[in-house]
Amino acid sequence: MQVKLSVFFTLAMSAAQFVLAQDSTCSGLYAQCGGIVYTGPTCCYDATRELYCDYIDHNYSVCVPTGP
Ligand SMILES: *[C@@H]1O[C@H](CO)[C@@H](O)[C@H](O)[C@H]1NC(C)=O
């Protein structure tokens, strides 16, 4: 019982760390995700909706929601 519990917590913690890492290393809704002088994250992440990186021009790309 004790062993199973610690395995569960180890898995739960690594899953939580993965979600947090994804959250903090990607741009959020309407945040910049690309550009000629931009050095930040080029991926997009939002907890509530799916985002993609929309190319505006070679200086600027922005994270926008997919779909309508
Ligand atoms: C991109 O930025 C450069 C330097 O600021 C500027 O000269 C150029 O007009 C910009 N290009 C576009 C497509 O906005």
From TrEMBL:
Q: Outline the extent of the CBM1 domain.
A: 25-64
Signal peptide range: 1-21
What the entry lists under SMART domains is as follows: fCBD (SM00236)
What protein name applies here?
CBM1 domain-containing protein
- Annotated Pfam families: CBM_1
In Gene Ontology terms, what is a biological process of this protein? carbohydrate metabolic process
**Signal recorded as keyword:** yes
Q: Does the keyword Cell membrane apply?
A: no
Q: Would you tell me the Gene Ontology cellular component terms?
A: extracellular region
* Keywords per UniProt: Signal
Spell out the InterPro entries in the cross-references: CBD (IPR000254), CBD_sf (IPR035971)
Q: From what organism does this protein derive?
A: Tulasnella calospora MUT 4182
- Cite the GO molecular-function annotations of the record: cellulose binding
